[in-house]
Amino acid sequence: MSNIVILTGAGISAESGIETFRAETGLWAQHRVEDVATPEGFACNPELVVDFYNARRAAAAAAAPNAAHKALARLEAEHKGKVLVVTQNVDDLHERGGSCNLVHMHGALNSALCATCEHRWTAPMEMRAGDACPSCNAAAARPDIVWFGEMPYQMDLIFEAIGEADIFAAIGTSGNVYPAAGFVAEAARAGAHTLEINLEPSAVGAQFDKALLGPATKTVPAWVESILRAGA
Ligand code: OAD
Hints:
Its cofactor is Zn(2+). GO terms for molecular function: histone deacetylase activity, NAD-dependent; NAD+ binding; protein-malonyllysine demalonylase activity; protein-succinyllysine desuccinylase activity; zinc ion binding. NAD(+) binds at residues 9-28, 88-91, 172-174, 216. One of its GO terms (cellular component) is cytoplasm. This protein is of the alpha/beta class and 232 residues long. It has 2 domains: 1-18 and 65-106 and 152-232, 3-Layer(aba) Sandwich (Rossmann fold); 19-62 and 109-145, 2-Layer Sandwich (SIR2/SIRT2 'Small Domain'). It is built from 10 helices and 9 strands. The chain has helices at residues 11-14, 27-30, 33-36, 39-44, 46-62, 67-78, 93-97, 155-163, 183-189, 216-230; strands at residues 4-8, 83-87, 102-104, 107-114, 120-122, 141-145, 167-171, 193-198, 210-213. The strands form 2 sheets. Strands 3-2-1-7-8-9 form a 6-stranded parallel β-sheet, with helices on both faces. Strands 5-4-6 form a 3-stranded antiparallel β-sheet. Strand 7, helix 9 and strand 8 form a beta-alpha-beta unit. Helix 6 (67-78) runs parallel beside helix 10 (216-230). The mean pLDDT is 97. It binds 2'-O-acetyl adenosine-5-diphosphoribose. 2'-O-acetyl adenosine-5-diphosphoribose binds next to helix 1.
């Protein structure tokens, strides 16, 4: 039975109404990355950063999982081999769509992290800079998001799964941010068949064996159906 590792990015949540980062009118056209997605930006202006993620949290709460999220949950439930979803997304649409075997490599909006003692707790809808940690009481709460310059979460588990993968698919990610953009090369080295599912070829699109181009709500259910029908 084939083991499948799926990397997802903002494109899978786009049709749920969540803005992507690098579209012409996307989040990085509206905000400076350095201001809202780096430890230095948080040190300079924590209110701005916390407000940015409060707005993302509200957008995620107002959104619903789409057919692509649900298709990946169906794949996990019905495929006989292992299925792991590694998402760069900080929304919770994969889990609300039914995925269980899931890694949030860039963190999660619904989690808060203490910068002093590393305790984690459920983030309130409206975090405030200087919120107290419920464990050590330091005024050091921050969004549990991996910022540029920080190490993504669970890299050992991810590389182990990629090393055992027979199929590696990347869905709705532009291939601009490492280490995620390097997973296709790693999967190819490990002998996996590699597939890119996107509206258009990504920055690393040439490295994939195959591409399926189109909106995720159409392409992902069709791909899942084909895998389940093949039964391999
Ligand atoms: P991007 O905004 O860079 O890329 C989104 C990708 O989704 C693009 O390649 C689009 O073509 C594609 N896309 C858009 N709508 C789609 C649809 N309906 N169906 C299929 N594909 C679609 O987002 P990411 O690649 O996820 O990190 O960005 C990676 C990381 O950069 C993010 O996790 C975030 C960001 O800065 C941090 O903040 C640390």
